[in-house]
Write a structure and sequence with these properties.
alpha/beta; Aldehyde Dehydrogenase, Chain A, domain 1; 2 domains; 38% helix
Length: 479
């Protein structure tokens, strides 16, 4: 990306006067500078999105698929550039950034295929004598300009989960990118600008809260897609008016480790699920319920796994745990842990901040209503509890305001099916952690974790509306 303070607004590059410097969470070095879009910039982007929709809605399937393929190829060709940029501006370990860029390519390639599968059905309507000779067909049509707001923790792929289905379905989108790490998607906008998309079909802009809030209330947008904190998301829904709202709001994901499970596998995967990207993941493992007969074994393996983690420079290929996104995130995590300790919790390892780094932390005996258990910590900490009866473990998993995903390690088919039927979450992952996701699966939650589902096919359903045509076969009087 060039050194200009640019953002992509209505199909053109603009520079603002309100600079947004982007710094590396690891060492504070300046990664680059962009600028905040103004209300006038947003109005321009909105007008262009409305106008461009008259063109995108008429793009043929092969045209939309070709544009998405061009974007996938462009991202793949510049893979290492995106990896290093993301690592520097987000503080994400380079090996995790590499996975995210690969997932981004996969998301775009999947969108290519899903663009070809937006179909309909034929419906027989002659189910009553009065409806003789009639049949119906359905097609899905794009709904119009979309407002997208993406988070800092997956600055590329979670943004693409809004942009890619919008393009695939023939819609336009204005995307508000996170202020901590906006450069990744602004660089992706360079790829967008090289395609044959109508100018204004995609805008990518940093905005302060006041300007970005207008995306929520502007009636010209037909759908708001937001990924972020529950309090902000539900407030947006209340103010969004008549537009559709898709919310992915995170949680405090739970795992059950059954008596007959592979405890070593469970501990190894829970280490990854709890501490990947310093726990700053919506489906990070936060609560683990282990059968009491396997509790000591599980904790011993988990602590050994944590002891082998490499903490340090995110650009080092060996690094497993890098810094949190800012000083405030690390400081408040330590406060929550100290509060839990005052209520009787025991810290088996970690529990302290060192600047923006936070030690990987394992907690036992925390009160269920403590913040570290009941809310979304978004930090490298995990709580471990024993259980004696599998049904009690299911009850404990559901004792949460959230319900995004859950994991169950078991060799019992009956317990696996019982978990699938009983756990109140958008996804139940058997013999892996809830942190598992592949980008074409339906992804989203219930309760405070959100509304609707992401995943290309499922996002396209929200971004299109079915329309019915009814045909009445009548004799041709001239025949």
């Amino acid at each position: 990306m060039s050194s200009e303070n640019r953002f992509y607004c209505g199909g053109e590059w603009r520079s603002g006067t309100n600079d947004l410097p982007v710094t590396n969470p690891y060492n504070g070095e300046t990664v680059g500078t962009t600028s905040f879009a103004t209300e006038d910039d947003l109005e321009h982007a909105t007008i262009r999105a409305v106008a461009a929709f008259e063109e995108t809605r008429r793009l043929q399937t092969y045209e939309r698929a070709a544009i998405l393929q061009q974007l996938a190829d462009g991202l793949a060709n510049r893979q290492e550039e995106f990896v290093r940029l993301m690592t520097r501006e987000a503080g994400k370990p380079v090996k995790d950034s590499r996975v995210e860029v690969l997932r981004g390519v996969f998301t775009l390639q999947t969108a290519v295929e899903e663009a070809k599968r937006i179909g309909g059905e034929t419906i027989p309507l002659d189910l009553m004598a009065s409806s003789a000779g009639r049949f119906g067909i359905t097609r899905r049509f794009p709904i119009g300009p979309i407002a997208g707001i993406s988070p800092f923790n997956f600055p590329l792929n979670l943004a693409l989960h809004k942009v890619a289905p919008a393009i695939a379905s023939g819609n336009t989108i204005v995307l508000k990118v996170p202020t901590h790490d906006p450069l990744t998607m602004l660089t992706f906008a360079e790829l967008v600008d090289q395609t044959d998309l109508p100018k204004g079909a995609v805008s990518v802009m940093p905005m302060d809260r006041e300007v970005g809030d207008k995306l929520v209330t502007d009636e010209r947008y037909t759908l708001l897609s937001f990924t972020g904190s529950p309090g902000v998301g539900w407030d947006m829904k209340n103010r969004a008016g008549k537009k559709k709202v898709v919310l992915e709001l995170g949680g405090n994901a739970g795992v059950i480790v059954d008596r007959n499970s592979d405890v070593r596998l469970a501990a190894q995967r829970c280490r990854v699920g709890a501490f990947a990207y310093a726990g700053q993941v919506c489906i990070s493992v936060q609560r683990i319920y282990v059968h009491q007969e396997r509790m000591d074994e599980f904790i011993e393996i988990l602590l050994d796994e944590i002891g082998n983690m490499h903490v340090g420079d995110p650009l080092d290929e060996k690094t497993d745990l890098g810094p949190m996104i800012d000083d405030k995130a690390a400081a408040r995590t330590e406060e929550w842990i100290e509060s839990a300790k005052s209520q009787g919790a025991k810290v088996l390892c970690g529990g302290k901040a060192d600047g923006r780094f936070f030690q990987p932390t394992v907690i036992t005996n925390a009160p269920p209503d403590s913040f570290v258990c009941s809310r979304e910590a978004f930090a490298p900490l995990v709580n471990v509890f024993p259980f004696s009866d599998f049904s009690d473990a299911l009850t404990n998993i559901n004792d949460s305001a959230f319900g995004l995903q859950a994991g169950v390690f078991t060799h019992s088919l009956e317990h696996a099916l019982q978990a699938f039927e009983s756990i109140e979450a958008g996804g139940v992952i058997i013999n892996d952690v809830p942190t598992y996701r592949i980008d074409h699966m339906p992804y989203g939650g219930v309760k405070d974790s959100g509304l609707s589902r992401e995943g290309l096919r499922y996002a396209i359903e929200d971004m299109t509306e079915p329309r019915l045509a009814v045909f009445n076969r009548v004799p041709d009087p001239n025949a």
